[in-house]
Amino acid sequence: MKFSNTYHKLPNHFYAPSKAAHFPDPQLIRFNHSLSQNLGFDFSSKSDEELAKLFTGQYIPEGSAPISLAYAGHQFGHFVDQLGDGRAMLLGEVLDPEGKRFDIQLKGSGPTKFSRNGDGKSALGPVIREYILSEAMFHLGVPTTRALAAVSTGEIVYRDTPMPGAVFTRVASSHLRIGTFQFIASRNDVSALKALLDYSIQRHYPEIKNQENSALLFFQQIAKAQIKLIAHWMSLGFIHGVMNTDNMTITGETIDYGPCAFMDHFNFNQVYSFIDRNGRYAYGNQPKILMWNLSRLADCLIPLIKADEKTAIEMLNHELSLFPKMFEAELNHRMALKFGLRYQAGFEEILECWFNYLQSEKLDFTLSFRNLSKILKKNDNSFFPETPQFKKFESLWRSKLSNEQKLQEKMDAINPLFIPRNHQVEKSIQEAIRGNYALFHELNDVLTHPFSEKAEFSIYSLPPNNEEKVTNTFCGT
Ligand code: AMP
Ligand code: MG
User: Fold this and answer.
1) DSSP conformation class of 457
2) Where are the beta strands (DSSP E) in 338-438?
3) Closest ligand 1 atom to the C-alpha of 119?
4) How much is the pTM?
5) Separation of alpha carbons 319 and 380, rounded Å
6) CB of 241 sitting under 6 A from ligand 1
7) Reduced to 3 states, what is the DSSP secondary structure of residue 416?
């Protein structure tokens, strides 16, 4: 690993130097060899013991100068002006063989300047959860941060109950969030804000660098990326659970796998997160929250858009007014493909009919989409209870279908069979806490190929039975 540290070019209130805690007995749980190879690392001469030490920060590789980043954020609508990496430190950045830059960050490596009352550590559960969910997301084709390593520390951390501790290694194209902009904007430091904008553009959107009003273009780019992301989530039944502004990247990568979940049976208002008591981040509320979060980013950019505040606000408001339609178009486009259709007039009626049917019959979101192709392939609609609603849906749907070649295969390539189901993730966590990682490994292997049928893995495609149902998810931090 050859590290560089471009964040160090930013004014120094963006970050603070960090040092990992000492851990008694780091043991490698899982290492992502394929990601490591893609990043151009060569760890072939390293033992598991050495990797465990490296990915708990027990020694600092050459070129690394660890830091924790500052950020602010709206948490459930309330502004907190100082959050920051309270349990994470950045080892540094690496360039992959194609020259793409990635952050390598340790999560749970010990207290930092931003820990407030927290211990800076992570329990094993959240590490297992983020590993499974973020890699599953990647293999489903959704932009996301990734999992390079999970290491147990040999230490006990205290949450509701004592728990084994662990460190997670996260790879991200950066850790810049809407909250990073809020951190600087709330301090009214326009020159630092400009430095952050320039840095962000250089790193993520270099094509707009020398264009007129690059701040506005930057805003459009982020909005586009976030719109794509949230539409993609929703097409897979994913509920992020904590869409706070500090958990929204400027790249449109999914970040922060806390109390998130893929839903089993379809429910537009589904919430899993234990802390989301009012359903702010419910499945169907995600587009509204996306718009709200983009408005908070717009607040930050005002002084960078135009010297005249009123004009700047008008320009940003105009952009914001376009986003709901853009989102709708993106979601409709994605959803149409799942039915083997191209988006066309009348599609909204099919979609509404379908979701009403799934919701009233409590049908599984993922399997319902997956089984659509069977109707076309084998005229097999045994999965679907034949209600009047279903008949209406089927005739509307069939009336729009083309006789395109290999349509069923195309549908199977975007409607996954395997998603990280909550009850399986929960079981993997419970087993891991008892020291058994077999299920964790197997689940990861299954989710590497979410679209391919495999008889021996069929159990992983099934929704939970009544005893297995998980109704609440926890951050567990
Ligand atoms: P999250 O809910 O994971 O987005 O975290 C919100 C904030 O709480 C971030 O600033 C985290 O760094 C911080 N935080 C979460 N867990 C801990 C912990 N165990 N110790 C210190 N800070 C933490
Ligand atoms: Mg966070």
Assistant:
1) G
2) none
3) 20
4) 0.97
5) 46
6) no
7) coil
